[in-house]
Automatic annotation (TrEMBL):
Top-level division of the source organism's lineage: Bacteria
Protein name, UniProt field: UspA domain-containing protein
InterPro entries listed in its UniProt record: Rossmann-like_a/b/a_fold, Universal_stress_UspA, UspA
CDD domains per UniProt: USP-like (cd00293)
Gene3D superfamilies: HUPs (3.40.50.620)
Domain UspA per the UniProt entry, residue ranges: 1-149
Organism: Carboxydothermus islandicus
Amino acid sequence: MFKKILVGIDGSAKGDKALEMAIGLAKESGAEIHLVHVIPWPNLPNVFPPGAIAYVPESVIQDLTNELKAKAEKTLKERLLKVEEAGVSGKIKVLEGEPASAIVNYAQEEGVELIVVGNRGISGVKELLLGSVSHKVSQLARCPVLIVK
């Protein structure tokens, strides 16, 4: 059925549940799993106060970006071990940008047939104002999206 499945990995328990679901689907269909983590650049939420980034030296921004990439790669490699232990082939990719758009663009470029993401549980007014990555992915994607609660 599916040959390529993308799983959005953010290091959360919800993301791990999405990965478990994707592994089960991949085993049934013989699919390859693409594990993707997105560094939300240039907005870097919760790192700098609004407007402060204009006053941060380029070297500090580069160091922070390198640190975030290293942490993301470590997280993805840990999840890739779970994929491989289940007898499924996989690959990892760290992306930068707005998370939903980066996930959807990667999926299109790689010919992904299913996107699996966890639901972080944002609801009500908060989701209306901020949106959620899973909701945005489901609206932008050109392939099926499975949102795991």
